[in-house]
Amino acid sequence: MNYQIKDIGLADEGAKKVEWAYREMPVLDILRKKYKNSKPFAGKKIAACLHVTTETANLITTFRDAGAQVYLCASNPLSTSDEVAAYLAREGIFVFAQRGEDSKSYWDNIRRCIESEPDLTIDDGADLTVTLHKEYPRLADKVVGGCEETTTGVHRIEALNKEKLLKFPFIAVNNAMTKHFFDNRYGTGQSTLDGIIRATNILFAGKRVVVAGYGWCGKGVSMRAKGMGARVIVTEVEPVRALEAIMDGFDVMPMDEAAKIGDIFITVTGNCNVIRFDHILKMKDGAILANSGHFNVEIEVNKMEEQKVSKRRIRHELDEYTFKDGKKVFLVGEGRLVNLAAAEGHPSSVMDMSFANQFLSSLYLLNNKIEIGVYPVPIEIDREIARLKIESMGMSIDTLSEEQEKYMKSW
User: Fold this and answer.
1) Could you give the CA distance from residue 394 to residue 392 in angstroms, rounded to a whole number?
2) 14 is annotated as contributing to ligand binding
3) Would the annotation count 267 as a binding residue?
4) No. of H helices and E strands in the chain?
5) Does 248 carry a binding-site annotation?
6) Annotated binding residue 65
7) Was 394 annotated as part of a binding site?
8) CA separation for the pair 240, 233 (Å, rounded)
9) Listing from the earlier edge strand, what are the strands of the sheet with 251-252?
């Protein structure tokens, strides 16, 4: 089959949503127009494991217009927009994704994309990359290169490389300045709170919000929660980041202490069991738990399932857990990525830069012979995307004069 989706009849609705998102993606629009005629990806297959959202649709159709044959699957069982998947299927994209798909379907869809024998891969969390290396080593040997979108995925690919198991070069798109400065900080910051509010309809003002992790995503979440009137507490394991959080005006303490006083808990670390069940036992009745890290391992949900007396779905993407002592806690989006499980992901304007990085980095991999390893986005690509974004916003910046350039290069 060319696609595995919920309902092709949803395509019209998806088309309107994709069109709306595209209005906020001027850099991708520039790239689409620039490469539509030359088609640099002609004859190439791309396997992409991404959140199937309106923004992703615009990236995928940009690749399509540049000549690529694209195979798309979801990078999270709860992140797919069925309307968008239907639109892409109608547009001729090989798309295998359905919101709420079970574990077997999720992994089968990843394998379908791998079995297309891709020339390039684009990943979000490295599930496709790891499956390709473990189960399809022969096909991995033929891949020209890959791009990774997330911090979690970059960590996994770097671990593969460290063990000398990586079979083709990767560009860590997540680490581009025009990605983590904006997507992680402003995108995650806004969309995480958006997901929690949609699921709970709570007021953030006056609440104690505990943010686990003060990387770029944690900075964004903390900044936005503070801006909405919350009293923010940060938990960290890295002393420099913890110090930065203090200097930014936040309280910093271990999770053991924060658990006793927090109202809302948000994990953004990329690690497992950041909120353990023994932390949950210390929380006040009515505490709300949400995860904005890539995988659903940051909150010890399995222990919550084992120890619960009862569980019920009380609102859309909000589950109430009751424990033996009568305490109730509320879990948003099953502990999965909250901004996509309970909302629509990042705003299009920040994904514009992230996906422009994906497009140009893929083109760079195709046009350059690179040894196996994990590489940053070339600085010239990062700066060009920033320049185009500034231009699209109707603004401009200064340039150095010959005298200034000479001065800066002189000892």
Assistant:
1) 5
2) no
3) no
4) 19, 16
5) no
6) no
7) no
8) 16
9) 251-252, 231-235, 208-212, 264-267, 287-291, 328-332, 318-322, 310-315
Task: Return d(Cα 126, Cα 268) in angstroms, integer.
Answer: 17
- Assigned CATH for 186-341: 3.40.50.720
- Look at residue 271 in the predicted model and tell me its pLDDT: 95
pLDDT of residue 294: 84
Structure tokens given for 56:
């992703």
Quick one: tokens of 312? 């019920």
Q: What is the pLDDT of residue 180?
A: 82
Say if residue 6 carries a ligand binding annotation.
Answer: no
Task: Give the tens place of pLDDT for each residue, 375-403.
Answer: 999 999 999 999 999 999 999 999 999 99
Task: Look at strands 3-4 and 45-50 and give their pairing.
Answer: unpaired
Q: Do domains 3-179+346-392 and 186-341 have the same CATH topology?
A: yes
Annotated binding-site residue? 151 = yes
Neighbours of 26 (CB within 10 A): 17
What six digits make up the tokens of 101? 């798909």
Q: How many residues does the chain have?
A: 411
Task: Tell me the C-alpha distance between 53 and 223, whole Å.
Answer: 25
Which CATH number is associated with domain 3-179+346-392? 3.40.50.1480
User: Annotation-wise, does 279 bind a ligand?
Assistant: no
Instruction: Give the E-state strand segments of 199-322 in sequence order.
Output: 208-212, 231-235, 251-252, 264-267, 287-291, 310-315, 318-322
Residue 152 among known ligand-binding residues: yes
Residue 219 assigned to a binding site = yes
229 labelled as ligand-binding?
no
Neighbours of 369 (CB within 10 A): 8
Q: Strands 318-322 and 328-332, how do they pair?
A: antiparallel
What are the boundaries of each domain within the chain?
A: 3-179+346-392, 186-341
Q: Which amino acid is at 282?
A: K
Q: Is position 161 annotated in a ligand binding site?
A: no
368: Cβ contacts below 8 Å, ≥ 6 apart: none
> What is the identity of the amino acid at 336?
R
**Which pLDDT score is estimated for 295?**
87
Which residue positions in the chain have pLDDT lower than 70?
Answer: 1
217 marked as binding residue: yes
| 292 marked as binding residue | yes
Contact, 385 vs 357, CB < 8 A? Answer: yes
Q: What pTM was estimated for this model as a whole?
A: 0.89
**The Cα angle at residue 153 between residues 113 and 251, in degrees rounded to 5:** 145
